[in-house]
Amino acid sequence: MNMLTERYANDISRVITTYENYNPYPKAHDRAIWESIPDTIRNFWISKGEAYLSFSCPALTAVDYMEYSRNGNVMRFQSKFEERRIALASLVLAECMEGAGRFIDQIMNGIWTICEETSWVTPPHMVISKASSSDCIPNISDQYIDLFAGETASLMATTHYLLQKPLDAVSPNICGRIRLEMKRRIFDPYLERSDLWWMGLETNRKMNNWNPWINSNCISAFLLMEKNDERRYLAIEKIMRTLDRYIGDCSTDGGCDEGPVYWDRAGGALFDCLEQLYQASLGKINLYDEPLIQEIGRYLYRVHIADNYFANFADSSGKFEIEATTAYRYGSRIGDRNLMRLASSAYQTNKPPLSRWLTLHRVIPTLFLDEQITENKKTPPYVHDVWMNSIEVMTAREQEGSSHGLYLAVKGGHNDESHNHNDIGHFLVYSDGKPFLIDVGVGTYTAKTFSTERYDIWTMQSAYHNVPLVNGIQQKADIAYKASEVHYQVHHEAAQISMNLTSAYPETAGIDSWKRTYSLYRGQESYIEIVDDFELIQATDDIIVHLMTPCMPLINSNGSILLQNPGGEKVYIHYDGSNLLAASEAIKLTDERLQAAWGDCLYRIILKAKQAVSAAVWTLRICKG
Asked: Which positions fall inside the Heparinase II/III-like C-terminal domain (predicted)?
C-alpha cells in the first residue's frame, strides 16, 4: 500500500510549494493576525511566557545521561530536558501574542542552551544509535533521530520561522546557530540515512507511533527551514515513502494496537503529517477520502467510554485527556461529526487543552479555532456497538448516545502487539461511565519496560488482567500466543463475542480448550455475562479467574460480590459459589502514573476452584446495583 508515493512522489516539485511561498502561520511581526486571537487565549499564553521570564535552564550533566544506564531511571534527565523545551515554546507563543520584544532575551537563552546540548536524543533511545549503543554517554559522531530529536527539530524550526526578524535584529548568529544545528542533527541524517528502523526502509519490522510522530516533526522542520528546494523535495519524497510503510502496517479497521493514549502520536501524528502535506501542496496531496485514513480517526471515539475514560488496552492509561484540537481538526477533514463531537466535548471539559510537548505545528493552527470548536456545546457520541475485526476489540454499551448503563469492552488479538500486555481474553466493565472491572494500564516507563524483563513488571502480566490462571501458568508474549475461533455478533437485544483462549497459554498450562463468551444483554434488567467453558488435559483445582477493580470488594457467602465506588454507584458480580471460592487482595499503588488514574489502591478479586475439575462451565453475571 503506497498511497502517497504512487500518487505524488513522481511530481513533488509541482505539488509542493517552494520555500519562499510556504507561509503556513502568521509570523510574529504580522501583528493584525495575532491580535485577532481572542483575548482570553492571548492572555493565557502571555501568562505562560511570563512564568519563564526568570527561568534558568537546568543543567544536563554527564551523570544525568548516565543515570539511565546505571539504575534505569530516566526521569531526572527527562524532566530537565522537557522543561527546557516547554519553556522555550511558551516564551515563543507569548512573544507572538504580545509582540513587544519582552520575551526575546529569554527566547535567545533557550535557543542557545538547546543548541549547546550534546544530543537531542534521550538516554533510553541511545541504544539504537550505532555509536552510542554500548555506552551511557552520547557519541556525537552518530547523529540519530528519535522522538525527542524530532520534537526539538520542529520547535527550533518553528521558532526560527516565527521570530527570525526580531532575533536577527539582536544578532544574526542566533538563527545562524539554529540552521547549523538543524543541518547536522536533522537534515543531513534524514537525507543520508535509511537504516533508522522507524523509517521502515531497510526492515520488515512493523511500524509503530515512532514513524508518524518523528515524520510529522521532520516535515515541519524541512518545510519551514530548508531553503534549498531540491533538498526539500528529496526530503518530502523520502518522508512519503516512510509514511507509506506506516500506513501499510495499519489495521484495516483503523484500530491502534498501542492503546488509545497512543492515538495522539500514532493516528493523530499521521494526521499532522497529512495536514502539513495538504497545506504545503495547496490541497493537492489529499488522502482524507481514503477509507483507511478515515477509520484511523474514528478509532478514538470507538474506544471512548465516558469523560476521560477509554478502553485502555496495551500501554495506555485508563484515564487521560485527549488533544481535543487535533481530534477536532482530523474530524473536520474526514467529515466525521462523531469525532468532532468527542473533540468538542473534551475541549470544553479540559480547556485550554495542553499537550505534553507544546508541539507548535499543532498548537498554532488551533489558536484560531476556539470559536469554531465551542460554537455548539457537544456531547460525545457514545457509540452503541463497535467491532474492530483486525485488532479484535469489541465494545458495547447499554444505551446509544449515553454513558448511562453498563459498558463492556473485550480484547482478543495476540500477545506480540506494539506496547503489548499479555491480555488475550481480557475485558472491562463500566457502569454509568465509572470503572468497576478495569485494565490497570501501565506505570511510569523505566529501562525495564522495554527490555527483556518487561514481563517481570506486574502490570504487563496476565495474572493482573481479567483472564484465567491455570496450573499457576500465565499467558506468554509472542505472536504465537493468540485468540482463535473469534466470533462476534450483535443485535438490538445483545452484543456478544466468543473466543478460544487455549493458544494464549503455553502447553504447560494443561489446557485442552478454553472457550470464553462475553455478552451484554440489553433490556429492562440489563446485565453482562462472562461464560468460561473449558476442558483440561487432567483434573486440577489450581484454576483461578482474576478480576481487577478500583473498588473494595465486599464478598458475600451467597455467591455474589458487591463493588461500590466512592460516588455510591454499585455493581454486583454473581458467581457459582458452589464451585468457586472468592477472595480479594489489595494492591497499594506508589507509581505516579497509576495513581493519576486509580488513586492509591487497586484490588484483585480471586475466584478459585474449590475442587479438582477437568472440565466445567463457569458463569459470571454482572449487573447494576
From this structure: 411-571
Measured at the alpha carbon of residue 466, what is the angle toward residues 464 and 472, in degrees to the nearest 5? 60
User: For 361, phi and psi rounded to 5 degrees?
Assistant: -70, -10
Cα angle 348, 349, 352 (rounded to 5 degrees) comes to: 65
What distance in Å separates the CA atoms of residue 40 and residue 46, rounded to the nearest whole number? Answer: 10
- Which residues are bridge partners to 619 per DSSP? 531
- Distance CA(480)–CA(460), nearest Å, equals 17
Q: Give the Cα separation of 299 and 398 in Å (integer).
A: 20
Cell numbers standing for residue 524: 429492562
With contact defined as beta carbons under 8 Å apart, do 478 and 463 qualify?
Answer: no
Residue-level pLDDT at 130: 64
Distance CA 499, CA 424 (A): 10
Residues 6+ apart with CB under 8 A from 439: 311, 312, 313, 316, 318, 421, 423, 426, 428, 465, 548
Q: What type of residue is 442? A: V
Q: What share of the chain is helix, strand, coil (3-state, %, to 5)?
A: 40, 20, 35
Q: Closest by alpha carbon to 19, among 224, 217, 275, 221?
A: 224
Question: CATH number of the domain at 385-624, please?
Answer: 2.70.98.70
| pTM, rounded to two decimals | 0.96
What are the cell numbers at 566? 466512592
Query: What grid cell was written down for 91?
Result: 516564551
- 194 Cβ contact partners less than 8 Å away, ≥ 6 residues apart: 201, 202
Residue the block writes with cell 529501562: 447
Separation between Cα atoms, residue 254 and residue 51, nearest integer Å: 40
| CA pair distance 534, 539, nearest whole angstrom | 11
Whether the Cβ atoms of residue 623 and residue 526 lie closer than 8 Å to each other: yes
Q: How many residues does the chain have?
A: 625
Sign, CA dihedral 97-103-104-107, equals: negative
Summarize pLDDT for 228-269 with one digit per residue, the tens.
Answer: 999 999 999 999 999 999 999 999 999 999 999 999 999 999
Q: Specify the 3-state DSSP secondary structure of 578.
A: coil
Beta carbons of 178 and 115 less than 8 angstroms apart: yes
The 10s digit of each residue's pLDDT in 357-415 is 899 999 999 999 888 888 766 899 999 999 999 999 999 999 999 999 999 999 999 99
- In sequence order, the 6+-apart residues with CB closer than 8 A to the CB of 590 are none
Supply φ then ψ for residue 271, to 5 degrees.
-60, -45
The Cα 156–Cα 275 span in angstroms is 20
Residue boundaries of the structural domains of the chain: 1-19+215-381, 25-193, 385-624
The pLDDT score that the predictor gives to residue 356 is 76
Query: Nearest CA to 90 among 357, 392, 385, 475?
Result: 357
For 175, the grid coordinates are 538563527
**Which is nearest to 246 in space by CA: 272, 225, 224?**
272
